[in-house]
Automatic annotation (TrEMBL):
<keyword id="KW-1133">Transmembrane helix</keyword>
<feature type="domain" description="NfeD-like C-terminal">
    <location>
        <begin position="84"/>
        <end position="141"/>
    </location>
</feature>
<dbReference type="InterPro" id="IPR012340">
    <property type="entry name" value="NA-bd_OB-fold"/>
</dbReference>
<feature type="transmembrane region" description="Helical">
    <location>
        <begin position="52"/>
        <end position="70"/>
    </location>
</feature>
<keyword id="KW-0472">Membrane</keyword>
<dbReference type="InterPro" id="IPR002810">
    <property type="entry name" value="NfeD-like_C"/>
</dbReference>
<feature type="transmembrane region" description="Helical">
    <location>
        <begin position="6"/>
        <end position="22"/>
    </location>
</feature>
<dbReference type="Pfam" id="PF01957">
    <property type="entry name" value="NfeD"/>
</dbReference>
<dbReference type="GO" id="GO:0005886">
    <property type="term" value="C:plasma membrane"/>
</dbReference>
<protein>
    <submittedName>
        <fullName>Membrane protein</fullName>
    </submittedName>
</protein>
<dbReference type="InterPro" id="IPR052165">
    <property type="entry name" value="Membrane_assoc_protease"/>
</dbReference>
<keyword id="KW-0812">Transmembrane</keyword>
Length: 142
C-alpha cells in the first residue's frame, strides 16, 4: 500500500506545526502553511516539482509578508518606560529651595532630593521645574 503525496505533505505540515507550538517561532507556522499548499497541489494532481515550488513560494511569501507587517507594528508602538527612566522629562514642584548643592521637589507624588543642573541657578519653593536626569536618589532639575 502506497501513501499518496498529499498525505506526506500533511504529515510535514503537522511536523512543522509542532515546533511552532513548542518554540513560539511563527516561521514554523509559515512553513506549515506552505506544506498544506503543497498538499493541495498534490491532491489536485500536480507533479513533485510543482508541489515543491508551491511549498517554497507560499512559505517564503508568508515569511516576507508577515515579518514586514510585524516590523511595522513594532516600529509604530511607543516604547514603555518604567522606574526612574519614566521620571525623566516630567515636571516637578519645588518643595524646598533647590540650587547646585541640593533641595527637595515633589515628583510623581513623592518627595525627592534634587539639585539644579546649573549650579548658578536657584529655584524657590512653589516653582515648577523639569527633571532632566535621575542620579541615584537625586533628581537633576532645570
Amino acid at each position: 500500500m502506497e501513501i499518496d503525496a498529499w498525505v506526506w505533505w500533511l504529515i510535514a505540515a503537522v511536523g512543522l506545526a509542532i515546533p511552532l507550538v513548542l518554540t513560539a517561532m511563527p516561521e514554523f507556522g509559515m512553513l506549515s502553511a506552505g506544506a498544506v499548499a503543497g498538499a493541495v497541489v498534490a491532491a489536485l494532481g500536480g507533479g513533485v516539482v510543482a508541489q515543491v515550488l508551491v511549498f517554497a513560494a507560499v512559505s517564503v511569501a508568508l515569511i516576507v509578508v508577515v515579518r514586514s507587517i510585524a516590523g511595522r507594528q513594532r516600529a509604530g508602538r511607543p516604547q514603555f518606560t518604567s522606574g526612574v527612566d519614566a521620571l525623566k522629562g516630567r515636571q516637578a514642584v519645588v518643595v524646598e529651595r533647590v540650587d547646585g548643592t541640593g533641595g527637595r521637589i515633589k515628583l510623581a507624588g513623592e518627595i525627592w532630593s534634587a539639585r539644579a543642573l546649573d549650579a548658578d541657578i536657584i529655584f524657590e519653593a512653589g516653582r515648577q521645574v523639569d527633571v532632566v536626569e535621575i542620579d541615584g536618589a537625586t533628581a537633576i532639575v532645570m
